[in-house]
Design goal:
136 residues; alpha/beta; Signal recognition particle alu RNA binding heterodimer, srp9/1; 2,3-Dihydroxybiphenyl 1,2-Dioxygenase, domain 1; 4-stranded mixed sheet; 4 helices; 8 strands; 35% strand; Glyas_Fos-R_dOase_dom; dioxygenase; MMCE/EMCE_epimerase; metal-binding; methylmalonyl-CoA epimerase activity
């Protein structure tokens, strides 16, 4: 089994796509007016308009209501990303900080309130833990 993607449901597809294009530095693919994918080497972030929810089952997802999932992306330099994104991000949750498990992380919210973590392993143990994973 292979992990394919994470999908965010939103009422404002264009706004969220533009936000993630800026954060991730890639252009979205738009196979349909109500759906976009931001394809990275390690994963795909899919974004669907709330109009797509009935295709999965009425009420199966509610836009801008996530309070449990953190969308995480591994980067090469958290501090450099922080400087790049500082003027663009409206809601910072945590400025760059080294976590007890050895990752340097910064957390912010996207325009729909989803929590996003950009991180890099910085301790010897964390670097070792990520050594066999796709490079971020």
């Amino acid at each position: 089994m292979n992990f394919a993607s994470v999908r965010i449901i939103t009422d404002d597809l264009d706004r969220l796509v533009k936000f993630y294009e800026k954060v991730l530095g890639v252009s979205a693919e738009r196979p349909a007016p109500v759906f976009a994918e931001l394809v990275l080497t390690s994963c795909t972030l899919a974004i669907g308009h709330s109009q797509t929810v009935p295709l999965f089952g009425t009420g199966s997802a509610i836009a801008a209501s996530n309070k449990t999932v953190i969308i995480e992306f591994r980067v090469h330099n958290v501090d450099a990303e922080y400087e790049r994104l500082k003027p663009f991000i409206d809601e910072w949750v945590k400025e760059p900080t080294t976590m007890p498990w050895g990752n340097r992380s910064m957390l912010f919210r996207d325009p729909d309130g989803n929590l996003v973590n950009l991180f890099e392993p910085v301790t010897e143990e964390a670097i070792k833990r990520f050594s066999n994973r796709i490079d971020g």
